[in-house]
């Protein structure tokens, strides 16, 4: 069973690596006939658009993180500290974008954005990404603030600190590991998002997943594999960082 699980996980990755260095590979040969890096040069050439697409993806993901945290920090604090009516329903509402098929939703979003001038803009793509990123940002931010002992804030208030200063100097630094974890989740979600980027941004906003899709649909498997590796590297790096920030006590409070 472990062997089958390892094959299911690492088999596609090995195939991806082979396609990235394959010069010639066609049926019925099990392995590439020729190896080389000529396709890497094509991807990173001025006409390959890989650097531009990667830069656009990172920029969109960064803006998505900033917008998501700007909304999630006050929302997470309020949901963790205040006795809000229908708190569970509010948390559940952030799952709505994940509850419906993406395709019909984004077709209608694209139609609406076209009418108000947001279609084909970075702002429109960021708004779409934020709707998905808020699921991670708000839920993890709520858990991070809920894991902080209220008595620490009360001690700061008793010492003369205002509510804002107690939040800034006590709660926010203690919640920062959880907020960093939510930022990484949002960044990775935005970096890999395709459907919304395609319907709202293409062809004016060209992200790396769109470049990968175009190459794969055109039968350019080498270029698609190299683009996929470019997406895979930051994902693995950020997941390793995420392990340092997301603590067990924060995880235990998610959804509470």
UniProtKB/TrEMBL annotation:
SUPFAM superfamilies: MetI-like. The chain crosses the membrane at residues 58-79, 86-106, 126-148, 169-188, 221-242. It is a multi-pass membrane protein. The keyword Lipid metabolism does not apply. Keywords: Cell inner membrane, Cell membrane, Membrane, Transmembrane, Transmembrane helix, Transport. Residues 54-242 form the ABC transmembrane type-1 domain. It is found in: Cell inner membrane; Cell membrane. InterPro entries: MetI-like (IPR000515), MetI-like_sf (IPR035906). One of its GO terms (cellular component) is plasma membrane. GO terms for biological process: transmembrane transport. Belongs to the binding-protein-dependent transport system permease family. This is Spermidine/putrescine ABC transporter permease.
């Amino acid at each position: 069973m472990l062997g089958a699980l390892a094959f299911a996980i690492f088999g596609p990755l090995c195939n991806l690596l082979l396609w990235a260095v394959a010069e010639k590979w066609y049926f019925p040969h099990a392995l590439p006939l020729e190896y080389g890096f000529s396709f890497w040069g094509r991807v990173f050439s001025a006409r390959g658009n890989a650097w531009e697409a990667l830069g656009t993806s990172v920029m969109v993901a960064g803006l998505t993180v900033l917008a998501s945290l700007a909304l999630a920090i006050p929302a997470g604090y309020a949901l963790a500290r205040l006795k809000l009516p229908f708190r569970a329903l509010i948390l559940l509402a952030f799952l709505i974008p994940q509850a419906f098929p993406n395709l019909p939703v984004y077709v209608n979003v694209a139609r609406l954005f076209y009418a108000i001038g947001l279609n084909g803009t970075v702002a429109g793509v960021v708004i779409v990404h934020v709707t998905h990123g808020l699921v991670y940002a708000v839920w993890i931010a709520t858990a991070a603030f809920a894991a902080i002992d209220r008595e620490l804030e009360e001690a700061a208030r008793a010492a003369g600190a205002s509510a804002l200063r107690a939040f800034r100097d006590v709660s926010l630094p203690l919640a920062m590991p959880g907020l960093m974890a939510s930022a990484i989740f949002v960044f990775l979600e935005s970096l890999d998002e395709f459907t919304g980027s395609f319907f709202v941004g293409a062809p004016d906003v060209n992200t790396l997943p769109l470049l990968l899709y175009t190459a794969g649909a055109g039968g350019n498997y080498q270029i698609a594999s190299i683009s996929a590796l470019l997406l895979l590297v930051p994902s693995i790096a950020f997941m390793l960082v995420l392990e340092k920030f997301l603590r067990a006590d924060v995880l235990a409070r998610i959804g509470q």
